[in-house]
Description:
The strands form four sheets. Strands 3, 4, 5, 7, 8 and 11 form a six-stranded antiparallel β-sheet that branches. Strands 12, 13, 14, 15, 17 and 19 form a six-stranded antiparallel β-sheet that branches. The protein has helices at residues 68-71, 166-178, 222-226, 280-284, and strands at 2-4, 10-12, 21-25, 38-40, 44-48, 53-63, 75-83, 86-92, 105-107, 111-118, 121-128, 137-146, 155-163, 182-183, 188-193, 200-205, 210-216, 219-220, 234-241, 249-258, 262-271. The radius of gyration is 23 Å and the shape is globular. The protein is 9% helix and 46% strand. By secondary structure, it is mainly β. It has four helices and 21 strands. GO terms for molecular function: netrin receptor activity. It comes from Stylophora pistillata.
Amino acid sequence: MEMKVPNGLTLNDEWTPRNLMLQAFPxxxxxxxxxxxxxxxxxxxxxxxxxxxxxxxxxxWIPHGANIVxxxxxxxxxxxxxxxxxxxxVGKTSKSSKTQESENFVCKSNxxxxxxxxxxxxxxxxxxxxxKSTFVFKRMKVVAFxxxxxxxxxxVVRVYCFDDCEWSFERxxxxxxxxxxxxxxxxxxxxxxxxxxxxxxISVKNLAGWQMKKASPLKFSYESLRNSFxxxxxxxxxxxxCRKTLSTxxxxxxxxxxxxxxxxxxxxxxxxxxxxxxxxxVRALDPEKVEE
Length: 292
């Protein structure tokens, strides 16, 4: 029997301990001295229960962000446990196989499985092969949001590039819910190369009736994407109306160039809130200058 618990984990067992709680937080909260060829593949997961030790093994599934399907031979996925103020490796895949199974550690295309008889703190780390001129990809997603905007105001588009796991998605959604964010685009996939050393540039196209006023920045930096489990990379684009007739909606095409895997295109749109009679801007405008 599978039981989904918050933050994307799955407990796969007919038996689960009572009063089980789960805390998930960025890797930076309990920092690890990662090597140059290592990067986080999950947040830190801490299991909390009244019972410190279990009376039987519990199977746990943790999602990871490595693109095993495309570049599994260049990834080594490690399961680490926090003990005595330090991180210890308790499970590891082989670089010679896309999936590595052992008695207590299994790595699949988008998650690992392991069994534990105690409740502790775990995370996943990816180690990449830098001895060859090869590309190693991480699975990510990109999406655009905006807040409620009135006709005649500048529109701020927030573009996120987040890890392809439930925890990152929920974390981003909580941020947007606090500011009344509105979804502008479908969620698209991005294969980010963790070995290219290149930023992911964003270009904006087909801005009918609008122009980009500023961007901070107009890219996702390489370092921010490598460490996206700590801070979700975000780009804020500000658009202003450039028509004599004010637009009541916006459509924008954004292209992410992520060499060497190619490009990802986002089509984002939103309707602007109409102003009511008595609004200072309405009084200042000729009614014919606002789109119906």
